[in-house]
Amino acid sequence: MTTTPETPALTYAEAGVDTAAGDKAVELMKAAVSATHGSEVLGGVGAFAGLVDVSALKAYERPLLASSTDGVGTKIAIARALDVHDTIGQDLVGMVVDDIVVVGARPLAMTDYIACGKVVPERIADIVRGIAEGCRLAGCALVGGETAEHPGLMAPEDYDVAGAAVGVVEASAMLGAHRVRLGDRIIGMDSSGLHSNGYSLVRAVIEAAGLGLDAEIPELGRTLGAELLEPTRIYTGDLLALLDDAAGAGVHALSHVTGGGLAANLARVLPEGMTAVVDRGSWRPGAIFERVSTWGGVPLHDLEATLNMGIGMVAAVAPEKADAAIGLLESRGLPSRVIGEVVAGEEAPRPTGQDVLVSGAKGVDGGGVLLTGMHEGWS
């Protein structure tokens, strides 16, 4: 085909897609990705499909595959503003694998997808290194991914990330509402901060308060930006260790506290007719939650329906196993405590004052959660 002045020659790079930059990004991330591969992973980085040897599943009587997919939302805006991209990947892994472990499943493999306006190899490699670190913490192989350059659709500095993972659980060991019993203790496990939910609210509060990300916040002991980029805590390794322990026999259900807050997510794993009565006074949210409340004048109920309020994972545990479960989690560096108890719905106290009762949530006809009392230092 010949060209004329009216039809100038164009290359893919001139159209905005730099395949050489993509290749460089792969080379920069290759070692981090390979470090998550055990002997069960076949092939290497760059294959059309990731292969995992699942021969071990032959030992299962009835293996169930568990899958999850998620992103990290507008927390990416903070990473972009600070030009720090090596933590957002851990957020992504946490959002995905900690949903899988909720049913008692062990994550096997994860893949990622990064869409961007322009491939900057070092930035893409930082993101993937963060994903690889998250997979290492979760004991999960990162077996594949895709980086897509979308010039004209996204600005050069824009990017978004998503991930998916698959895990396995023996059917007879699956956790959930069907195992929860009256009298079960609700154990709350500390979050590392905001995790990756509610950043649209948090960013709006910061903007309204006129705060910069470089502002030193005495209550936080660091800059606001550093606090907001604190990676999501990954609970999978600690929870699998608990489930493998004798104390794990008492674990009946788990709930990952993400969008919607503690009450809405806990209600999803409770059976109809039961209510978890949760005492806010049993823990104190980290300083960032108090600051967001004060800076924005955000009502407590709205905070609780948006943020994790310092509790990132909860478990319903048989009362005789609760102390042992907490002891194991604490020994692994995960602060945990009893924050409530499961009672019959008709025996739950009536909400008063700032109490909140949530019944069922996110399309699940589950039980109820009553948030009562007040956090120390809150009014």
TrEMBL record:
Residues 63-169 form the PurM-like N-terminal domain. Residues 183-346 form the PurM-like C-terminal domain. This is Phosphoribosylformylglycinamidine cyclo-ligase. CDD domains: PurM (cd02196). Its main location: cytoplasm. Belongs to the AIR synthase family. It comes from the Bacteria. Pathway: Purine metabolism; IMP biosynthesis via de novo pathway; 5-amino-1-(5-phospho-D-ribosyl)imidazole from N(2)-formyl-N(1)-(5-phospho-D-ribosyl)glycinamide: step 2/2. It comes from Brachybacterium kimchii. Gene3D superfamilies: PurM-like C-terminal domain, PurM-like, N-terminal domain. Keywords: ATP-binding, Cytoplasm, Ligase, Nucleotide-binding, Purine biosynthesis. It holds the Pfam family AIRS. It catalyses: 2-formamido-N(1)-(5-O-phospho-beta-D-ribosyl)acetamidine + ATP = 5-amino-1-(5-phospho-beta-D-ribosyl)imidazole + ADP + phosphate + H(+). It is found in: Cytoplasm. GO terms for molecular function: phosphoribosylformylglycinamidine cyclo-ligase activity. Its EC number is 6.3.3.1. PANTHER family: TRIFUNCTIONAL PURINE BIOSYNTHETIC PROTEIN ADENOSINE-3, TRIFUNCTIONAL PURINE BIOSYNTHETIC PROTEIN ADENOSINE-3-RELATED. Signal peptide: none annotated.
